Amino acid sequence: MQRSQPESTCRIAMNEYDSKNLLASFDIPVVPEKVAPDAASAVEAARVLGYPVVLKGLGRNLLHKTERNLVWVNLVDDAAICEAARQIANNAGSDLEGFLVQPFVKGSREFVAGLFRDPQFGPVVMFGLGGIYTEALSDVAFRIAPLSEADAEDMLREIRSRKLLEAFRGEKPVDRNALIRALMGLSRLSIENPSVAEVDINPLKVMPDGRLIAVDAIVVQQDGCPEEIFLPPVDSKRLGQLFYPHSIAFVGISAQIGKWGHRLYSIAAARGFAGDIYLVNPKGGTIAGRPVYSSVEEVPGQIDLAVVTVPAARVPALIPAFQRKGIRNVLLISSGFAETGPEGKAEEKSLMEEARKAGILIVGPNTMGICNPHIKLYCTGSHVWPIAGSTAVVAQSGNMGTQLLAFAENQGIGIRAFCGSGNEGMVTIEDFIDAFEVDDVTHTVMLYVESVKDGKRFMESARRVGKKKPIVLLKGGQTQAGMKAAASHTGAMASDTRIFNAMCKQAGIVKVERPMDLLDLSAAFSSLPLPKGNRAAIMTLGGGWGVVTADLCAEFGLEVPTLSEELIRKIDTILPPYWSRANPVDIVGENDLGLPLKIIEMLLQWDECDAVIHLGIKGRKVLVKKMAQSIRVADPDIAGDFLDVMEQTIEDFERQYVESIVALMHRYQKPIFGVSLLTEPTDFTVYGMPGSDYKAVFYETPERAVNAFSKMVEYQRFLSR
Fold it and tell me: What is the CATH number assigned to the segment(s) 109-222?
């Protein structure tokens, strides 16, 4: 056991006996034990409990018992008890409050359980491999309280040493029901007793008959600790209105190319925004042939959105003028606030308080901007113009956000709206999630997050919204720098990353590890029906790709079921006898353009198939075009008209193939994941069809298709729970 005395004066450890009494009242099985004030009483207690016994020093300051030689085990007689008591008294000194006598419990399997309070997410329950291996192997799982039974079950499945929960070396399986009750008890304890800051149970021993016993435990209480103060929520309807301005004032407009004041205006004006645009700069004059007003109060019309790019020091003076003008929404591009340090943070806080009093909503500061393709509003720091769609994007890094928008534009992925949230001085990531819930146009939510302002609210909002529309998230800053100092194993084993990952699992957030995955998942969720299970049918133009894809499915937890005899007989009627006769279905390079769709439909009709992954059918046009190009040079005797027809035929086939894929998904309500043989710069990931809810999706590699399928399965399991 490695515990350190709580550093904060508002945190006080209970002694081991009192700790266990509290835990026992919350369905946590504890070892029977007796408190003895002296050696003679310890001998009497040992006789009652029955030898052999364990003798421990008891005291709320005795958290490092093993290090201080305060735990004596396997004591078999009265003399051994007396000698152990003498040694413990010498080692404990004035910290000794008495002795604790326990039966000597045998059991080869040891686990650890506990809870602590995370400053962002509140009470967190932990379970994992215990004893001397706790720190060495760090095999633990976390969940945010309150837990459901499904959460507790997930924790047991998540640890790498889960085999130890089964029958082991002649010992019976762990009583899983008792273990789940114990984890649920810790969850209830954290909710019903907010004064409990930490619980550390290590070891939680497994008896040979499978029973659980907590042989050592400490509870740390808190009293008078400062509480985190969170920003008040923003009205979701009002936040949505910010993305639908009828008029925009660019405050801080500049005639100099490259400056933010000029860049944002030029992007917005060039992309067809239908509303009124006003330019504001104290110098007045004209810019881009438009009049420049010296203040917003000189603007003749109503201003729905002020886009501010003036230096930070000049921003506070704008608030009274905005209030008099009736400007209620501000996009604060200006930097120089909280990101610069404590002084800037204080200035930002003061600015937000003044704006809140004036009834002004501020996005930012230090934001990259917003866009809403549905009204051709593009007001970001980069010239990216994705098409209108159903994927809402919020990024805490403006550069990351605009890179994602650029990829979405190139791949034909439609965007509902985008915001670079900046410093989130007033409008936080939690506010955006709440707004997505009530926005009917948003079908998928895509987030790049480095930190959250209010962890508990973030989780609650994400879990609520996730039941209606998927949230795909990439987390930045996942390093060991976030390790916490804590008073027990439970807290010390945690890190910002582990807690955040646990929160994502509970909230149904689809968490990805790479930026490209965000767009891949956005394409899948916004275009395909959800799979009902994890069984993949694979069709490939060549055998190697099928083998690789099957291996990837196994790696990502997907099944590749064996083809039924009935299905094999059906495919036998249209493929030559040397086809693979297995899943993956290798169509052995057949050039009959009608075959792939026939086989895909057969696979979709198969009850053992939840999704089809097809590889190498689309993209053959690239090879055909290059072949025609070579023939034109090498063999002028071949008629050019014939080559033109050949190229047009494959173009027509691929267009019809895409349309047929969409129609098949409507008919069978199963997703179809495509992998292109080759791609051209003009190719997309997503191909929409007029009047269709579904779209055809083609990835460049099998890895991306399999990953997308696995993440959709993960989300479907969350919905099923």
Answer: 3.30.470.20
